[in-house]
Amino acid sequence: MRIAKDLALMTSGTFLFALSITLLSMPNQLAEGGVAGLSLLLYYAIEFSPALVTLIVNGILLMIGYRLLPRRMVMLSILNIPLLSLFIYFTENLGQPIDDPLIAAIFAGLLTGFGFGLIFRGSSTMGGTSIIARMLNYRFGWDLTATNFVLDLLIVLSGMFIIGPLLTMYTIVALFIGKKATDFILEGINTRKAVNIVSPRAEEIADAVIEKMSASATVFSGHGMYTKQSRDVIYIVIQTPRLFYLKKIIEEVDEHAFIVVHNVKDVSGGTFLMKKHKRRRLNLTTRNENSDYSV
Fold it and tell me: Pfam families given for it (predicted)?
């Protein structure tokens, strides 16, 4: 079941990426990142087939990096690399120039970003710089999209002598939009905030949060170095739309409470992902600091 889902995500993402190349980038003289960008620059300069170039270069890079990548990812990439070339080959004559290259760049970035996001969610790669980004991610924990963005940017800048500075800048816009679209697919729109609250009435605030929001909180002890006084600190992770309501509850209990809000990239485990009725029952029965997350 999992492999079927990954294959579906990989195929859909690869198709979107191929369309961004053939329908938007190629007819509007835009570049791309990675091996796809290299293939486009060769196409503009000496009319080499992008489908053939991506197949050859991606195959070489996969052979170099296969020892450092998970076996499952290698197998999916072996399927994905020729699939990308096939999609490019069958759609490369369908694109038409757009009067405004900036519009082409924006939508090329969106298609590329959505495609990359689906491929990454399917535990595969696009080949090329994506393989390098995956290797660096597994070895050093580097961020996938940021690493891929930097590698792609280097290739795009090298194409300034072929497509000119204006179209190169449009391509950079497309890459930036693509990164944001990839993050959107990987992280979703259900953003969260981590909230730290320092207050002498921490337990009252925690009780109010549990009662009025069916949420839970962690309370731990802190020590203020300036005041030389001990204070309880509450830690809560909450969905962004509910932050305003949380602040109102805090102010009702202690209007002088010190509140710090952080962006949260990912949340798993704890009670954050529990159904509301299960979370409420857990809060009412345990009421202790072991229930770490709120919703």
Answer: DUF2179, YitT_membrane
